[in-house]
Amino acid sequence: MHHFHYLNNELYCEEIPVRDIARAVGTPFYLYSEATLTRHFQAFDSGFAGMDHLTCFAVKACSNIAVLNLFSGLGGGADIVSGGELFRALRAGVPPQRIIYSGVGKTAAEMREALEAGILMFNVESPQELDRLQAVASGLGVEAPVAFRVNPDVDPQTHAYISTGLAKNKFGIPVEDALREYVRARSMSNIAIRGVSCHIGSQLTRIDPFIEALGKLKKFISLLEERDIRITCLDLGGGVGITYADEQPPHPHDYARAIQKELNSMQCRLILEPGRVIVGNAGVLVTEVLYTKVNTGEDQEKRFVIVDAAMNDLTRPSLYGAYHEIRPVVDSGAPPQLVDIVGPICETGDFMARDRLLPRVSQGELLAIMSSGAYGFTMSSNYNSRPRAAEVLVSGGTFHVIRSRETYADLVRGEVIPVREEP
Ligand code: LLP
User: Fold this and answer.
1) Residue ranges per structural domain of the chain
2) pLDDT digits (tens, 9 = 90+) for 119-151
3) Fold of 4-31+281-411
4) pLDDT value at position 156?
5) Does the Cβ of 156 fall within 6 Å of ligand 1?
6) What is the reported pTM?
7) CA angle, 269 as apex, 267 and 272 as ends, to 5°?
8) What CATH class is the domain 103-272?
9) Is the C-beta atom of 31 inside 6 A of ligand 1?
């Protein structure tokens, strides 16, 4: 359920016509609904209300500091994967004690920053990372709180690029090796064992892979207990999917209930790292039709709708073949046509949708690319020297530009033409 709806054939975000925002900020732009963000955060978080838990929003899904600040105000924390995300989370006002640091390639400098900030926990993903963290923590004279990210070798049944919990994926430490690492960590002077963590993939539409992974984690935790290694945190990662087209992912409450049932008497603080399920359907990308054209070949005719958003703005269709519903901002009721909706970038792979039935649109009309709140803006780039889009947050009857559109000057910031010596 989200707050993008039609009133008199016109798309609104909460109480504001999307057209009005486009007129004020230009296109393309990302548009988020605060009511939807809040509702989705609370729907997820409240599922675990009966348990000691912390919902750490996965910053990579939508990293604008206004969004992070909103979740922090609702009691959430942050799941980060880089020094840059740490910077954002702190800037947004997320208390360091609510920050979890995941990722396979943390640098020593990033570890130092996170230790200095006093974050809740590092999710360590390799023996060498543990050694480096020990060295960095010792240099600072502090203790590093850790969990190991265990790779349970479970098939999440999702897109190959975003499945992370299989043995062949680069993530985590195999369950069989993890025990050895906990024993090693216990003897390290600047490492404090706090938990076990796991994240098996993204856009999961079924509960059973989560439960299968949790079963393996529980067995592993009892092995730890046999060695007298006690953990206080269990981090189950993110991964709950959303509806882009006709997927039927579990409701967050069903997901929460299944997990609570499986955990029953376990005395651990539960940490969750949801991203997509909170922001995915809370954001859209608004774009303007620049041109329409028909390319005819010998035996075919292809209709193109060329818009001012491109694969640099929303990469998901090009990268994963992802489906995003596309709706006219003003629904004229025109008959549908089979079209490719493409951007201005010089690659055939630059498309928002292919062979899609869309009501006939003409130059200057606006389209909303739905379900773009997660991994939309955060994966955008400057390819083809296109300034990145603006981000706008609607709250009831008002809107705020929470990130201005980049300028041409932003494009060359930091670039230098070397001054060369005369020969
Ligand atoms: N925790 C960890 C350790 C992760 O690696 C991820 C996502 C999450 C949490 C959040 O997962 P979520 O709840 O959003 O599924 N760019 C891709 C998705 C990549 C997900 C990477 N990891 C996409 O656009 O589909």
Assistant:
1) 4-31+281-411, 103-272
2) 999 999 999 999 999 999 999 999 999 999 998
3) Lyase, Ornithine Decarboxylase; Chain A, domain 1 (2.40.37)
4) 75
5) no
6) 0.96
7) 135
8) alpha beta
9) no
Residues in the chain with pLDDT values less than 70: 162-163, 165-167
| Ligand 1 atom 22 nearest Cα | 202
- 239 CA distance to ligand 1 centroid (A)? 6
What is the 58 CA–ligand 1 centroid distance (Å)?
7
Asked if residue 241 has its Cβ within 6 Å of ligand 1, the reply is no
Q: pLDDT digits over 195-229, tens only? A: 999 999 999 999 999 999 999 999 999 999 999 99
Q: How far is the CA of 172 from the centre of ligand 1 (A)?
A: 14
Whether 56 is catalytic: no
Burial class for 182, CB neighbours closer than 10 Å (0-12, 13-18, 19+): buried
Judge if the beta carbon of residue 79 lies within 6 A of ligand 1: yes
